[in-house]
Amino acid sequence: MSQWSGFAGKRCFLTGAASGIGRATALKLAAEGAELFLTDRNAEGLAETVADARALGATVSAHRALDVSNYDEVAAFAADIHGTHQAMDIVMNIAGVSAWGTVSHLTHEHWESMVSINLMGPIHVIETFVPPMVAAGRGGHLVNVSSAAGLVALPWHAAYSASKYGLRGLSEVLRFDLARHGIGVSVVVPGAVKTPLVQTVEIVGVDREHPQVRKWVDRFSGHAVSPELVADKILRGVVRNRYLVHTSHDIRALYAFKRIAWWPYSVAMRRVNVIFTRALRPTKSG
Q1: 21 near 224, Cβ under 8 Å?
Q2: Is 243 a catalytic residue?
Q3: pTM of the model
Q4: Which residue of 9, 20, 25, 186 is 20 to 30 Å from 146, comparing CA positions?
Q5: Which of the residues 160, 165, 255, 265 is marked catalytic?
Q6: Phi, psi dihedrals of residue 134, rounded to the nearest 5°
Q7: Cα–Cα distances in angstroms (integers) from residue 87 to residues 98, 132, 234, in the given order
């Protein structure tokens, strides 16, 4: 067990608070009486989460619409927060973007945005919020939301996996680096989640409106869990100081399959890749 028995009065900083997992987690923390510091690049959605958190009786001490991939914006917000508040107790990197595609279809901008937002974004937050936690000497917890694509080789996820594997590796190192300061680290590895990200994810080189593509996207969405369930798992993971926080049994099983039976896993993933590619019918060879 970690030092967390509850979240009342804990200072919690969250990115991606306007929708999906970030919003659900913010509202669950609000209901538990946490003091919230929230950000998202969607100003309108962020304002709605702030209003809903306050309606639950929570204190939202600071919120700002910003792009986590912009270090200067993150650093300025961190400086403003630390100028009037003590160091955070919990920092949660939840914001993220996704795009699927083969190497032949992905543009440089796709690769760059995945790494800039999904990996450098959390690094910017870690750079500016974790050192004050260390200096305060009161311990705490860091949560990084990676993905199933940070554990296993999902088809057409090369750019996304580049960012999410990187975030998992970063989290593993920090798990040990920060332990001596009493700061726990959890990395969340969701599979499909019912968020706007799933419904709007760009599949590069594919017509999403094609009936065959829609069928497969709907099939993928059918396995999705709710953001509220993921938020519950995240908070439980913090309380129990878990490193890997799984949100669905299928991903846990697939990751175990990979570690225990590499050769059968390799055969299975090659087959999955063929099925996936045939089903989505890219518009030109990939």
Answers
A1: no
A2: no
A3: 0.91
A4: 9
A5: 160
A6: -60, -45
A7: 31, 5, 21
